[in-house]
Design goal:
six-stranded mixed beta sheet; four-stranded antiparallel beta sheet; 2 domains; 10 strands; Immunoglobulin-like; alpha+beta
Length: 288
């Protein structure tokens, strides 16, 4: 019985040492994401705070809705808490100190159990040895759970790579505008980067059906071939090297509208270095 208890303590000690080494290796990975996640968390919370202020302003303009206000504040606090826990798990305290503390308690218990005959008691009670095993297994389980949470936070940070995200509209808002038939008009399109990273090497292809006339200006006018998604369409191509987050760029296109009235879909294809191609569409309604 004594030999089996010793072997149990020895296995626990080996497991503790192995897990302690894993925590150090984990931090080497989590530290590489810590700065990025801290920056993104601040920007996310800033945007979330702005949305909360706008929402509370709307609610106050109506009749006082205490329950709705409490719900919005509760959601904001919950999101802030989740982000702070995520940052903690990727930090030195969360990735190393927190799990290592429990592993060290477990290792200390295992060492005491293995060397129980060296204590002052004539015979170290077997009951106490069993209690040491339970305590050691309990602390190692808590440390292992924290370690799994750290691995999950690292995996989430690795999967959620910040990329640009686009929202395209007409200048007056919305994706639809009205124009008169055969009207020559300069339209303005707004492209906003609502993502979490800078957009680089951006090319915007705004494709018009054959019945539209696209006039040359400070952009490229290119007839789409049969190998494209929109054959025979005429594309205006605008290029920009960089679009920062929460920034809107405006580009203008000079058109002569078609003779026939109706609703025309205007495909838009945006090419960016990180995300490749992003597709959207605008709508122009021609009224006679």
């Amino acid at each position: 019985m004594e030999d089996s208890l010793f072997q149990t303590f020895l296995l626990i000690a080996y497991f503790d040492i192995a897990l302690l080494s894993i925590t150090i290796a984990n931090y080497a990975v989590s530290a590489s994401y810590l700065g990025r996640e801290t920056r993104l968390s601040r920007s996310r919370m800033e945007r979330r705070k702005q949305k909360l202020v706008e929402k509370l302003r709307e609610l106050r303009q109506k009749e006082p809705q205490i329950d709705e206000i409490k719900k919005e504040i509760k959601e904001f606090d919950g999101e802030a808490k989740r982000l702070s826990i995520r940052i903690f798990l990727l930090s030195w305290l969360g990735a190393v100190i927190a799990p290592s503390t429990f592993f060290l308690f477990s290792l200390l218990s295992a060492v005491i159990g293995m060397n129980s005959e060296m204590l002052n008691y004539p015979q170290f009670p077997q009951f106490l040895q069993q209690q040491l095993i339970i305590f050691s297994l309990g602390t190692i389980s808590i440390g292992f759970m924290i370690l799994l949470l750290v691995v999950r936070a690292i995996d989430s940070a690795a999967r959620k790579i910040p990329v640009p995200e686009f929202d395209i509209n007409f200048e007056k808002g919305g994706k639809k505008m009205k124009c008169k038939s055969k009207e020559r008009k300069e339209i303005t399109v707004c492209l906003r980067n609502k993502g979490e990273d800078v957009a680089e090497d951006v090319e915007i292809f705004t494709c018009f059906p054959p019945s539209f006339v696209v006039h040359e200006n400070n952009y490229i006018v290119f007839k789409q071939g049969i190998e494209t998604d929109n054959p025979d369409y005429t594309a205006s191509i605008h290029k920009t090297s960089i679009i920062h987050t929460d920034i809107t760029v405006y580009y203008r296109i000079i058109l002569t509208m078609p003779e026939n009235g109706g609703i025309y879909e205007i495909p838009v294809e945006i090419h960016e270095r990180k995300i490749g191609a992003y597709k959207d569409k605008l709508i122009i309604e021609i009224v006679e």
